[in-house]
Amino acid sequence: MSAAIEQTAMGKTERGAAAGPSNHLGVRDLLLLRIAIGGATRADLQRDVAPLLTPRISGTEFRQAAELALSTLAGSQLITEAKGRLTASAKGLRAAEGLLTSSRSFPETWADVKTALVLAALGANDSPAVRKAIQRAEGLAALVLQHHFGKSTSRVLSPADLRAELAIVALERAFGNKIKTGLGKGAGLPAKPGRLLAGQLFKHPREIASDGKLIVGLACEIAGCREPSLPALELALLRALMVPKDEGAAVAAPPARARAEPPQRRPVRAPAPKPANDRAPLSEKQPSLFEVVSPPDMPEFCRAVVDAARPVAEGWPGNRKAFISLVWKAIRNARPDWGLSEIAFKGMLAEAHRSGQLELATADLKDGRDLKSLEDSKILYKNTVWHFVRVQD
Asked: For residue 101, how many other CB atoms are within 10 A of its CB?
């Protein structure tokens, strides 16, 4: 049993030393790293290393795998034991250093080892500025999001800058990367619309009250940790680094012979055929005309918006305007194949106005007409509130 756990839950130390920290680490690698930090007892190993492998293996399984790994390390002359204390040999120290090739120097504490592993996993620079930034939950969460969404991890972005980047990612996902946005730094959406857009990146889209909560919450969802705190996020990242997903599944899966046989299904009687003159409505789900979501590019989007605005526009020739909320209802009903949300629709309208491809207008709130339509239509953009799409006759 212990041999099976050790072989599935670990990568060999020699292989890890040659390949560097980009590989997933196993029991033997972790034990060697912990012992290389000034030596350790078995109790120290249980306290510091076992949590990184939970819940893939239990405490008992860890002790069994650890004993096998320690005997292998001792047989390879990487560690020695005296009076219950394990110490790394010169050869063992060199092997441990090979596991952290991205670190500037070999860490002095176990906390520094974990930080180095996290930075290596995220492909981040091991610089003093980055290390200082990830001592806060927002800093580490920002680095997680930068790595996840393919942004540079050479430095940790501020919450405001990262929120703007996430809003662009949400827009690009909504429109299939067909949008050429200018919503970068210095010309981005205001904070609240930006957070609304970035909130679409959650599995269940939501509105977040602040940039910090948005960044930490989204990073925790991506990393798979439930508690939005620095220790929980760091632990989730380290656990993901330990064993590849396919190997982790192999550890958790029971042996094939131990799996229960699937329950036998009862034969289902075929439904009686319907008579030709049956006038009852069909209960079966009808095939949708729009099975594939195909977001529009900007010119197509603008043409559709103007076409949808013309029938509901009000005013005199040369100054006809349509409520944005009415245009949104028309677009939602006419183009379900675009797969747009209201937030993405309004974000695209703001970008189209910014780039001059269509024109938005603001309402004179003094007349007090149709306050609900005004409220549903508003778009906050650069200290201005837009309510209408202007139609050029």
From this structure: 14
Query: Which token pair is 151?
Result: 């942004």
User: How many domains are contained in the chain?
Assistant: 3
Return the H-helix or E-strand segment holding 309: helix 298-309
Residue the block writes with tokens 């680490």: 25
Paired tokens of 285: 């789900």
Distance CA(341)–CA(331), nearest Å, equals: 11
Q: Which of 242, 267, 284 finishes a domain?
A: 242
> Within 10 A of 291 (CB to CB), how many other CB atoms are there?
7
Between 109 and 21, name the one with better pLDDT.
Answer: 109
Comparing 9-13, 31-35, 77-81, the range with the smallest average pLDDT is 9-13
83 domain-assigned: yes
The residue type at 116 = A
**Is there a single domain that holds both residue 318 and residue 373?**
yes
- Residue 92: give the domain boundaries: 2-101
- Amino acid identity, residue 99? L
- The listed range with the strongest mean pLDDT (124-138, 273-287, 365-379) is 124-138
Residues 235 and 312 in one domain: no
> Which of 176-179's residues contact partners 24+ apart within 8 Å by CB, and which partners?
176/294, 176/295, 178/295, 178/296, 178/297, 178/298, 179/297, 179/298, 179/348, 179/351
String of DSSP letters for 72-128: HHHHTTSEEEETTEEEE-HHHHHHHHHHTTTSSS--SSHHHHHHHHHHHHHT----H
Residue type, 358: L
Q: How many CB atoms lie within 10 A of CB 54?
A: 13
Mean pLDDT of 326-340: 85
Torsion of CA 282, 283, 289, 290, to 10 degrees: 170
Kindly report the pTM of this predicted structure. Answer: 0.58
